[in-house]
Amino acid sequence: MASSSMKNNVPAEIDTLKGRFFAGLDQSVLRNVLSVAQTRRIAARQQITFVGGRPEYLFFLKKGRARSYLVTESGAEVLLLWLVPGDIIGLVSLMPHPPRYMASSSAVTDCEFLVWDHSSIRRLAISFPQLTEHGLRLGLHYLQVFIDRHASIVNKNAEARLAHTLLQLATRVGELQPAGVIIEITNEQLSSLSDISLFTASRLLSKWERRGAVSKERGRVTLVAPEALMVP
Fold first, then answer.
1. What pTM was computed for the model?
2. Can you list the domains of the chain with their CATH numbers?
């Protein structure tokens, strides 16, 4: 696991922490939880967890972008989640005897995490049961994401799925600029998140670019006119 820095961390900006995991926690409880955390910085493209690995840590993404994925027997990569600040990697470490990681994860950009080792997060979960409840709620949220994706394969065509993915990403990770909403993502990643082929994703993006709805550069999509994505 790549790490450029790891140190004790008690953020002063408690009120700015995002995500369901900390939502509603009393300030004193939050300070107790954060006092045990370490800060870990992981460079872009470095691995965070491996499928089948022992869940020794819980990672809270504070800055940057990461991804959760599987590699099929044929070597194809299936992108499961596009992780943004407030997301968690390693929720199973809240359990006393956690199963091994069910997916791999890596940093998309340079990332900063708050990290708890298994014994520390277990002690905190026992002292503050809200953490386990929040972890369950977050796990159910991720499950809902997968249910919605599965249902969309049946109920939506490829164009609708790609448009939906782009609009969701614009809301979660888009950067508003005068030219439009910029999303840092590759065609391959978009196709995997939308459950369509790379060829289809590239064809649809080119179609939308000709229409003036998007602007495409290597590793970046700019939504110029989001409302135009679904125009026949």
1. 0.82
2. 5-153 (2.60.120.10), 156-228 (1.10.10.10)
